[in-house]
């Protein structure tokens, strides 16, 4: 089984219990990866260190939760690249995920039915997402096409990454030049620099009992 990592803030114990429950229920080995707590970031230091471009400084102050989420995904990808040496694939989750039992049982069929012409080309496989703009390839997969439509080709709570593609994704992600919203940053690249497939049915959804910590942090930790 591929390595699996779930981003979790250390103080979010109830979300960590969600990870442990899934491990127990499905016999998985999802490893907890400590995320970046946006409210604890020194934004001016990020600018000084070249992580954040000054043109997005004001947005970062308003969206501190989004910034923490963005950096969490960058750091987990860096960890995967370092740990697994560009070999194979890995699953990245956010800690409010909820596996859909029936679809998970069919998971191997999804992987085995990636179209032949895509098997060596894809960079990311989204198995949890909002909405898709693209072209249906077969019973299992849709290829994403470039779009600026709100809510389309977005959602980063459950995706499989080809580890050899991580350098390309990190190069596009850092330094943060245009937005602290990771979905908005990646969207123009999908269908161009990034080859992305979406499952036709969501294998993993958001757990409805959890609210959005990212939006809550944006509201509570506005920096003036």
Primary descriptors:
single chain; 224 residues; alpha/beta; Spore Coat Polysaccharide Biosynthesis Protein SpsA, Chain A; 8-stranded mixed β-sheet; two-stranded antiparallel sheet; 9 helices; 35% helix; 19% strand; disordered C terminus
The chain-level mean pLDDT equals 91
Radius of gyration: 17 Å
CATH class: Alpha Beta
CATH architecture: Alpha-Beta Complex
Approximate strand percentage: 15-25%
What is the first-to-last residue Cα distance?
46 Å
Q: How would you sum up this structure in a few lines?
A:
This protein has 224 residues and is α/β, with parallel strands linked by helices. Helix content is 35%, strand content 19%.
Can you give a write-up of this model?
This protein is of the alpha/beta class and 224 residues long. The protein is 35% helix and 19% strand. The strands form 2 sheets. Strands 2-1-3-8-5-9-7-6 form an 8-stranded mixed β-sheet, with helices on both faces.
Structural topology:
Elements: E1 4-8, H1 13-26, E2 30-34, H2 43-48, H3 57-62, H4 64-84, E3 89-94, E4 97-99, H5 101-105, H6 107-112, E5 124-128, E6 134-136, E7 141-144, E8 158-162, H7 166-173, H8 182-186, E9 196-199, E10 204-206, H9 213-220
Parallel strand pairs: 1-2, 1-3, 5-9
Antiparallel strand pairs: 3-8, 4-10, 5-8, 6-7, 7-9
Helix pairs in contact: 4-7, 4-9
